[in-house]
Design a protein that fits this description.
mainly alpha, Fusion Protein Consisting Of Minor Coat Protein, Glycine Rich Linker, Tola, And A His Tag, Chain: A, Domain 2, 3-stranded antiparallel sheet, about 10% strand
C-alpha cells in the first residue's frame, strides 16, 4: 500500500534539475508523523491515612440447634400415661398424709379426753376418801359420846370455865395461867376424834394462834411429834372443832399464841 502511494505521488510531481551528482534514492513512502506523547497525569499526593474505625464486637456465634425431632405418637402417648400415673400417685400420697393427720388429731383428742376422765375419777376418789374419813371420825365421835353417856348417866352440873381448868393435868400449879392452859387442852382433847391407827404414847407439840374471844385463826403441829399424817390431821381438826376456845374468865391470862403438848396414852 505504501509503495502504491509513492508511485501515485511521483507521477504528479515534476522532476527537479539540481546541480551535483545524482543521488539515487528510493522513496519508500511517507509515514505518518508520530503523535506527540501523551502527558501522564501527575500523581496525586498520598492522602493521610485515616484513623482506623473501631472494630465492632464480634457477634456471638449462634449455638447449633439440635435437629428437630419428629414427635413419635407412641412416645407422646407413653408420656401422657406416665404423667397421669405420677399425678395419681401424688394424689394418693396426699390422701394418705391427710388420713394420717386426721388419725393423729383423733388420737390426741382421745388421749386428752382420757386424761380428763382420769383426773375426774381421781377427784371423785379423793372426795369419797375424804367423805369416808369424815364419816368414820363422826362415827368414832358418836361412840365416844355413847361411852361417856354410859360412864356418866347423871349429867354434871355446868360450872364456870375457870373451874373446869382444875381438871386439866392433875398438877400442882393452880395459877390462872395454868388453869387457862388446862382448859384449852381439855377443850381440844374432848373434840379429838381418835383414828383407829392412833397408838398410845402419842406426843405432839401443838401451836395455836387465836384472837380475843377464843376464835382460832391458825394451828400447827411442831416437832417433836410421833403421829402419822392421819393422826396429825385429826388433831388439827380437833382444835378447829373446839373453837372458840375458853376465854371468859381468862381474859387476864389470854395469850394470842399458845404452845402445849398434845398427849394420848390409851
Amino acid at each position: 500500500a505504501l509503495l502504491f502511494a509513492g508511485l501515485l505521488w511521483t507521477s504528479t510531481t515534476r522532476p527537479l534539475s539540481l546541480p551535483g551528482p545524482v543521488i539515487e534514492a528510493e522513496l519508500v513512502g511517507i509515514s505518518a508523523a508520530p503523535k506527540p506523547a501523551a502527558q501522564r497525569p501527575s500523581k496525586p499526593a498520598p492522602a493521610k491515612p485515616a484513623a482506623p474505625a473501631p472494630v465492632p464486637p464480634k457477634p456471638p456465634e449462634p449455638k447449633p440447634q439440635p435437629p428437630s425431632q419428629v414427635q413419635n405418637p407412641d412416645r407422646i402417648e407413653r408420656e401422657k400415661v406416665a404423667e397421669l400415673a405420677q399425678q395419681k400417685a401424688d394424689e394418693a400420697k396426699r390422701a394418705e398424709e391427710e388420713r394420717h393427720r386426721q388419725e393423729q388429731v383423733l388420737l390426741d383428742q382421745q388421749q386428752r379426753q382420757e386424761r380428763e376422765r382420769m383426773q375426774q375419777l381421781a377427784q371423785i376418789r379423793r372426795e369419797r376418801e375424804a367423805a369416808d374419813r369424815k364419816a368414820k371420825l363422826e362415827k368414832q365421835k358418836l361412840e365416844q359420846l355413847k361411852d361417856l353417856a354410859k360412864a356418866k348417866p347423871v349429867p354434871a352440873q355446868p360450872v364456870p370455865q375457870a373451874e373446869q381448868a382444875k381438871s386439866g393435868t392433875n398438877g400442882n400449879d393452880d395459877s390462872l395461867q395454868a388453869q387457862y392452859f388446862a382448859a384449852i387442852q381439855n377443850a381440844v382433847t374432848e373434840n379429838w376424834l381418835r383414828p383407829d391407827n392412833a397408838q398410845p404414847g402419842l406426843r405432839c407439840m401443838l401451836r395455836i394462834v387465836q384472837i380475843p374471844g377464843g376464835d382460832v385463826i391458825g394451828v400447827q403441829l411442831l416437832n417433836p411429834c410421833n403421829a402419822d399424817p392421819l393422826t396429825r390431821a385429826s388433831i388439827e381438826q380437833a382444835v378447829k372443832r373446839a373453837a372458840p376456845l375458853p376465854y371468859k374468865g381468862y381474859e387476864k391470862a389470854f395469850q394470842r399464841e399458845i404452845d402445849f403438848n398434845f398427849t394420848y396414852d390409851g
